[in-house]
Amino acid sequence: MNRKKLSILIAVTALFSGVASACDFKCTYNKHIDAIKSKDFKAFESTIIKDGQLPFILPNGKYFDDPVAYRKMLKEWFAEDGWTFSPEVIKTEETKEMGTVLLKVDYNEKDRGGKPYHLEHFLFLVFKKEAGGWFLVHDQNTKIESGANQ
What we know:
Layout: H1 3-20, H2 25-38, H3 41-45, E1 56-57, E2 63-64, H4 67-79, E3 83-94, E4 98-112, E5 115-130, E6 133-143
Parallel strand pairs: 1-6
Antiparallel strand pairs: 1-2, 3-4, 4-5, 5-6
């Protein structure tokens, strides 16, 4: 095989290997969840929209949609020690442009205000396909009241 054909073959192989390794919806939400569990803010941030609003609802009902505040809050949380995040996927849905994942999360902190803290909550994430990738556009946490039907 001559050099020109070999160069073309290498270029085409590189192009298709890049396409094959692109992260689809399932890959993106798994990357997002794995980044939370491992407290890897860089990987987490790569799954979040770059521009625009990002609605965020905390388990206590507090709402804001500022993506800068979202990143700041989550970066500070990732830097804290003593917490664990154990999610269970309940349901996913995907269209050509949007994907949702509903998780049940068991969250624990060793020490919050001098005592252990536990929270069971539903986490509902919405991802949107844009610019060839999938990005988080909505993050909602809903506390599960003890004794609630599930």
